[in-house]
Amino acid sequence: MILPPATLGMLGGGQLGRYFVMAAHRLGYQVVVLDPDPASIAGAAADQQIVAAYDDAEALAELARRCVAVTCEFENVPAASLALLEKHLPVRPAASAVRVCQDRREEKAFLTRAGVPVAPNLTLLPNEPLPALPDTLFPAILKTAREGYDGKGQWTVTNGAELTAALATSGVPCVLEKRLPLEGEFALTLARSPSGAISALPLVQNWHSGGILDQTRSPANVPTLEAEAKRIAEHLIAALDYVGVLTVEFFLVDGKLLVNEMAPRPHNSGHPSIDNAGCCQFELQVRALCDLPLPKQAEVQPAILLNLLGDLWQHGTPDWAGALALPGVHLHLYGKGEARPGRKMGHVTVTGQDWQTVEAHARTLRALLGLPPR
Fold this sequence. Notes:
- This is N5-carboxyaminoimidazole ribonucleotide synthase.
- Helices cover about 30% and strands about 25% of the residues.
- The protein is of the alpha+beta class.
């Protein structure tokens, strides 16, 4: 067990890292962030920042000297860097688990071996002839094997000609997935400690717009789906021998859950827990890293989260005063500089004692901020 005031390491300087720093500080820890951006928002909140690339051997050695354990805020930290750190101190999640999650080819193969249902898919390379593809595979989505997120690195294709063009545009290995008629999108965030304890936040339901998360309902309040999601997620944690926070995204198709992908970290859809749960996903991350006791059951109140993208700033600063005048509104701005279209600048969570009130205030808030109704 790692107790405060120990110093923890964080690879990544974005908003997820920033919230980890805040949760660690509340528990009495210090944090060193390693990120190549000297103006990173997590580094600004941390006790120290090492400004260097994630594969800088000297910087990694310095991080290992300053810290007693390390975690990461996103899955694209080079697995080789995590493996290097593992020679000197605990790294949670381990390089072996992150390696699976950061490449869709490895991830799909792992999920298939684990016996978990996924959408029909196959791996394609940009410089190789296409195999014979059945018409039933279309329409489909072509996704880059690595680093695509929030709709980036993805193309919807309806036939072989469009697929050939998209694959050439990508220029990298890709995964082609059949586009399924979705009845809903859900996510489950859970944590596992080195001692083997597991704690899960409730299942949430997500709605996306343009490939970017738009709104989250927490909890989803679908007991049968939640039980199945927990069974699948705990099975995956065991198969990965995973320690840390893991988020599993699901598609609901024909009444059954399919795994879309895994994130070896807290997730945007887990942000409601900051305001509606006794132990949020970032405190779970700190507790799992340090082998502190995990809560057996996360009790939550009704909440709806709205993502705030840079588009909202096109005509000036949004009406925060009006938003904060609504009961149960919790505004979170991440401290990023430029408000670019599609960039996650923050989120707002509406909480309350009952769903009727929360839903009414969320509708009012969407209209106030100029978001289309949902």
